[in-house]
Amino acid sequence: MDLIREKLAQLEEKSLQLQKQGKYGESLDTLEEAFNLKINAYGENSEEVIKTSEKLCELCNLIAMVCLTRERFDACFEFLKKAKVLCQNSPNFKAVTYNNMACYYRRTGKIRTALDYLNKALQIEITQEKSQSLADTHLNLCAVLSQLGKHESALEHVLMSIVLLQEEYIQNIGRNINNNNQNTNFNNEEYKEFNDRIAVLAIAFHNLGVELEFLKRYEEAIQTYKKAVKFSIENLGENHNLVENLKNVLAQAEKQIQQQQENQIKRKIIKGNTTSIRINKATGIYGPKDQEQKRATTTYTIQNQKQNNINKSPKTSLRPLTSNYATNKYQSQKNDNIKQFSENSINDVSPE
Known about the structure:
This protein is an all-alpha fold. The protein has a domain at 149-270 and 325-339. Helices cover 76% and strands 0% of the residues. α3 (47-69) packs parallel to α5 (91-107), α5 (91-107) packs antiparallel against α6 and α7 (134-147) packs antiparallel against α8 (151-181). The protein is elongated. It comes from Ichthyophthirius multifiliis (White spot disease agent). Residues 215-263 form a coiled coil. This is Tetratricopeptide repeat protein. Residues 328-352 are annotated as: Disordered. TPR repeats lie at residues 95-128, 202-235.
């Protein structure tokens, strides 16, 4: 039995090191070898086997999301199917897997299926005393509901996400203060995860701004975009990629919202002029100067209507409004917001 334990320890350490090197396929093969050895040694329902199945589930989820970022959709789906089998005895990992299934279906254009999986994840998480990914599920629900045009519901979910993420942020700050008092610091992995969660909160502020803008609450939207920029600068630094993205969103939003407000004022003026023309026409006092004014007003109205069409539909907008997906420990999207994986991280990944 001691020889088996020694062999298992070697396999698990090897798997961990391979994962750190980005060799996810080799890491998975090594961990599966340890998993099968544990089944033979301890039995399928043993605690050791359950713990390793959770590690396998976590790794399959991670590989699936790497494949998704590279648009290797078939491979992504295969690893998610493995994860679904492995997570049956773990509500937390089942919720994570359902979240990632939603990522997959959203990226492949099956938005309502994505919504179904997110609702399944939410039902699991709200029954857990302490869910690790509830904030991310709410944020992902915001993104999917926004894509379906359900902006009131999307707003509710992003607000819930922000509440949970702020609680998490305060707890992490408190933990950092305690570490400083004890002359200890976050290790590199903890520090990276802390920054990743800060970035998710900044993205949540951005999504809140997007939903407020969709609901034509423009002043609130601008203030929220500003909050996202300020928060990300204070916590991630001026040179972080996300800061630049959020600054661009704010600048474009201010410009477009100002244009929309100017258009509204012009429409009111035009409406007033049109009413005046109808009154003059009815009373029969239509002189040459009035005719020139009418032509000018009509031409301007046509141009204004074209501009209105651009701003009215998000599909043809100069600045498409999009609520972003959460990026957590197991998820990575192509927003250039959080760089989680190296360029060579899936070279050895292939589904069985």
